[in-house]
# Entry
Amino acid sequence: MARKLMKGNEAIGEAAIKAGCHLFFGYPITPQNELPEYMSKRLPEIGGTFVQAESEVAAINMVYGAAGTGSRVMTSSSSPGISLKQEGISYIAGSELPCVIVNIVRGGPGLGGIQPAQSDYFQSTKGGGHGDYKLIVLAPSTVQEMVDLVQEAFDLADKYRNPVMILGDGMLGQMMEPVEFKEREIKKVDHSSWATVGMGDREKPNIVNSLYLDPQELEDHNHKLQRKYDEITANEIRYETYNCENAEIILIAYGTTARIVQDVIPMAKEKGIKLGLIKPITLWPFPYDVFNDYVDSTKAFLSVEMSMGQMVEDVKLAVNGKKPVHFYGRSGGMIPTPEGILENVIEVLGGLE
Amino acid sequence: MKHEVIIAGFGGQGVMLMGQLLAYSSMLEDKNVSWLPSYGPEMRGGTANCMVIVSDRQVASPLITAPSALVAMNLPSLTKFADSVKDGGVVLYNSSLIDEEYQRDGITSIGLPFNDLAVELGNARVANIVALGSLLSATDICDKDSVIDSIKSVLPERHHHLLPLNEKALEKGLSLVN
# Structure
């Protein structure tokens, strides 16, 4: 199939539709507006439904309702808007409903700015809302990867009855790259045992709920959720490694930052420095184990992020004190340059001699 | 082969479209491309720019710190980006709106009256296409025919009567630089 030049935000929309998502509920915020705009145009054409809700809170609760029927449904926002959605996300996770939530991250905290950032890592991977729950968090680094992961996100959401978050950033949402929509089979899952789609032949109604007033029942529910999270961790970890064999320093970066690091590797090589890159694609579950493959052969790790250092904590857990872990980041919408990263690498190496 | 192009100007001068056409045309030639816009709170009259990378290898960072070519459609854009152009690079600036001359060792810098040339062609709004033509002849990033094809794809059908004008504008631009 021919490649199309598409903006990241629009490509997410088309990928979702190709994955069988016909329902979208959202509320505008920069830098993800092209996505709801695209859905508002495309969904009516295919008999789907687009609603611009009165607020982010309303939008996520519309998603909660639609997901309760087992339908493929998506919402999107950017950082401050995702904060507003946290209550609904916790309810959706507690009720074990499938849906896809897109966060095109901008600088924070507070209203922050509108330029790209990765400062919602903690919020996405460690909770965000209340209670013991996990989102599957997918972090694409190219528009093509975004398309592929959005299609996959719906399958994962259905398979595990769990909300999946696509974590991009303003740059990825705004930029254009060639994309190809690969024909892929939609993995249909039978939701009739729990979804609220009418009584049919059943004797008892299906009820979607996250309220368990009996503490023992709620603890049992938490154990059940935990077993599911363990299963996801066992089966769904995704990452890529570049050049890690015999690398002096291994950089860890995801999303846009991973692309920038890929330009640093040849620059460092010219200076005689061998760099590797571990690029987590699932931020939760985080690829802790891959670090074991390289922790003995490398001198140090450097986490590069567009935040004040959020992923660095997971890197430290993975490295487990065996080698030094450093951090380099820019924030507030500032983007690390290859030159800035290389300078930091040289500093880290100097400190090691 | 890797071209890193910054196209900058006032909002409304068509710099985003110019970049998109460059990326689209190069994609049609099976090259790897990326197009990254500035997306601040820009408006008509404010500054806008986009960064286009065309490469025979996969595009890693879409961000350009040292462009191999700059098209500056107004003075603030020239001031902001010209000194970052790398050795051997090209600066094309719009002398219709920029009175001062820009020259620097190690680069090719040419002032061309894009607006005046567009007016001569009968439509001030094709200044961006004239500029794109001059960029093509100064850099050989892609073929004229690919650009014509992409204008056809990007321009809505109801505007297709403007195709001959755009082709003329592109050819005008191509003839400006040797």
Summary: The radius of gyration of chain B is 15 Å. Residues 2-176 of chain B form a domain with the Pyruvate-ferredoxin Oxidoreductase; domain 3 fold (CATH 3.40.920.10).
